[in-house]
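Thread: pyridoxal-5'-phosphate complex, take 2
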Amino acid sequence: MKRYNGVIERYRKYLPVSSKTPVVSLHEGNTPLIFAPKISGALGSNFKVYLKYEGLNPTGSFKDRGMTVAISKAKEQGARAVICASTGNTSASAAAFSAKGNLKCLVVIPEGAIALGKLAQALIHNARVIAIRGNFDQALKIVLEISQNYPVKLVNSINPFRIEGQKTASFEICDYLGRAPDFHCLPVGNAGNITAYWKGYKEYYCHRKIKQLPKMLGFQAKGSAPIVKGYAIKNPKTIATAIKIGNPASWKQAVSARDESKGLIKAVSDAQILSAYKFLSQKEGVFVEPASAASIAGLFMLESEGFFSNLKNKRKEIVIVCTLTGHGLKDPQIAIKSIKHPPVVEASTSTVVKTARI
Ligand SMILES: *Cc1c(COP(=O)(O)O)cnc(C)c1O
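Output below.
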């Protein structure tokens, strides 16, 4: 069997690379598609729900798929430094791939709005991290301006190479299932990922690798749902910091993905996100960061609204894939805050037995 060497090697013929491209890879991609029996059961006996667990990428989020292409192309084009704005995961990924590829990495983040694990990653990989007194949208505007005036490559998802790399997640899903899913659920922040998945599915369809396209079901957080509302949000709010974005860069492309696929983009509340977050960790054994749980929160919301009712209990199997974008360890503080703290008791066997209710 051929060894796995990352998404560029695996899907080279679908990507804008040549034999001259210096590939910078951390063996990203090839993440598991985990069958979720309890979520499936909640929908109906003919439903099969799978979790695309992107938290198992090398830096713990799907951003690595795009970053391997963006960083490799930046090197091919002679760049010495890259820059990004980030709600956390882009900076973690950019910092790691820059370290591997010997590039300088500059990161602009909104002060106090980055989960602890992500900040730790950017710092330990030696990125130059600057926090601004402002939000992600302002940070993105600043790095865009800098990249237009200084010799640094922008590696946010407005960089088309990011989208190219991220579309490989669709390829993996189709290759694994032998078909496209009927529905694909994912969280929507800056909207690069929904753009990338839809592009991937369409390309596989054009190459006759799949016979049908999925409906794209995107979910924003209620306090930062510009696409749902139809206008930019000045002060986006949500506990799901990775999708706390008021003016998505790929807004138009996300709307196209929604409309072309006859899907939808809806909003879920922080309470719904936290409840799905706990369901995933406690019933399916999969620990994700809050933003990732928006996929499942959205799926449960649609189910409760009767969205799937005319597909239920038919002979036809309905396949749903939910992308879980990032690992739960990214944001340990949220986990600790959202559950009861463990009791502290005296160091005796009998007390521990009593307290544990064995
Ligand atoms: C970046 C990110 C998102 C949002 O993806 P977009 O491409 O910005 O829509 C969601 N979840 C996690 C964990 C992320 O890192």
